[in-house]
Amino acid sequence: MSPDAAAHALRRAELVAAMRSSVAPSAAPLSLGKRSSNLFRDRREGARRRLDLSGFCHVLDIDTERGWVDVEGLTSYEELVAQTLPRGVMPAVVPQLKTITVGGAAAGVGIEATSHRQGLVHDTLLELDVLLPDGEVLHCTPDNEHRDLFFGFPNSYGTLGYALRLRLRTLPVKPFVKVEHLQQEAPQMFFSHLTAHCQGDADFVDGVVFGPQQQVISRACFVDAAPWLSDYRFEHIYYRSLLEKKVDYLTVQDYIWRWDTDWFWCSKNLYAQHPLVRRLLGPARLNSRTYTRVMRWNARWGLTRRLARWRGRFTESVIQDVDIPIAAAPDFLAFLLREIGILPIWICPVRGPAPEARFTLYPLVPDSLYVNFGFWDVVESTVAHEPGHFNRLVEREVIRCGGIKSLYSDSYFTPEAFAQAYGMTQYDALKAKYDPAGRMLGLYEKCVLRA
User: Fold this and answer.
1) Is the bond into 344 cis (omega within 30 degrees of 0)?
2) Which of 85, 326, 415, 433 has its CA 20 to 30 A from that of 71?
3) Closest by alpha carbon to 408, among 139, 30, 43, 52?
4) What does 101-166 look like in DSSP terms, one character per residue?
5) pLDDT, tens digit (0-9, with 9 covering 90-100), for 167-182
C-alpha cells in the first residue's frame, strides 16, 4: 500500500469510528460541514449534525497508462487539475469553477466543454467509496453488489451518503489549446452547426448566446505549439473575446479555467469588469471564490433587493442550468429570450450516457445529444409576482421540452412533478436501503423545500 493510500485508510478508519460512536436515533439530520459551497439556494436554519470531511482533500493516485485518477471527495478541481496536468492528463470533465469539489460534482451534476463526448462528471466515474449515514463505507462500481448506489448517487445531493474516494477517467492533454470562435446569426443554424461540431474531431465544444441573432460556437483542440498566447486572468475578459477574435490560443490550464476569472460574465454585477475596480481587486481576487463570498453576503443582507425596491422594481434571482434535447433547443431558446430575458446564455452540448449506464436520478436518454443552457442573473419587473414566478416558468418549459434541470439552485416543483422528473420511486427504494433510519434529509425536502 502506498503512503497516500495508507493515510487515506487511516483517515477513513478514524472517521468511521467517530461516526459510529456518535450515532443516536434522535440525532438531528446529518449534514456536511463545509466552509464554502457552490449551491445557489437558500436553506432554512435548523438543527444539524455537522460532519467534517475537510481532511478528505487529497489526490491519491494517477495512472496515466490506464487513464484514471483516484481522489478524495473534498478535493477541489483546482487542486486536482494542478496535480494531473504535470502528468500530461486532465480529468475527462472539469467543471468550470475552481472551487467545485470532486465529490460535489459527482453528487450533483458537473459539466464542461468536453461533455459533447464525455458526458457529465458522473459519466466519467469508474468507482467510488460512499460513506453511509450510519458510518458504513461501501465500495461501489457499475457491476458489483452496490451498483444500484453507484448509479443512484449522482444528483442525490448528500441525501444517500458522501463520496470519500472516487476514481475518474482522465484524458491526455497537449500544452496548448487552439480556440475557434464561429459567429452565427440564426438560432436554427446555430444548433445545427453545434451538432455538426459535436460529431467532428474537436476536443472541446461550447458556445454563448449574446442575442437573438448573435450566437457564437467555440470549437477548441489541443495543439503542441502556439504562435501567441492570450491571458484572461487579469486585465482581459474571456467572454468578450468570443466576439473580438476568430482564433485564439491559451495554455491548457488557462483554457480549463477560462470562465473562473469572471464567473463567466457574472462579475459585471460586482462592477469587477470596470478597469479601475479590476485593478483594485487584482488577479488574486478575480475568481469565483471572491464572487461567491460577495453573493452570499448579499443574499444574507438583501442589499440589491432593497435597492431595487427603492427604484420601484421587483426582482427574482434566476440561476439555472438545464439540459434540453437538441431537437427542442431552438424552442427553448426562443422561450428564454421571450419570457426570461437573461443574456448572455452559456451553451454546452452534452452526450447522454451509454445504454448500460442509466443514472437513476438524472435520467438522460442514452447516446442522445442534449444542450445545457446556463443562465444566471436577476430578472426585474415593474409588477409583483408570486415567489419563484420566473423559475416556475423555466421548470414548466423544461418539462414540456423533455429536458431536466440541475438542482443546485432554487426549485419549485410540486411533489408529483418532481417525482416524475427525477425518478422518486427508485430514489425511495435507495433511501430505504441505504438510509433506513432517515438520518439524512430527503431529496425533495432538501432541494425544493430548502430544509
Assistant:
1) yes
2) 433
3) 43
4) BHHHHHHTT---TTHHHH-SGGGGEEEEEEE-TTS-EEEE-TTSTTHHHHHHSTT-TTSS-EEEEE
5) 999 999 999 999 999 9
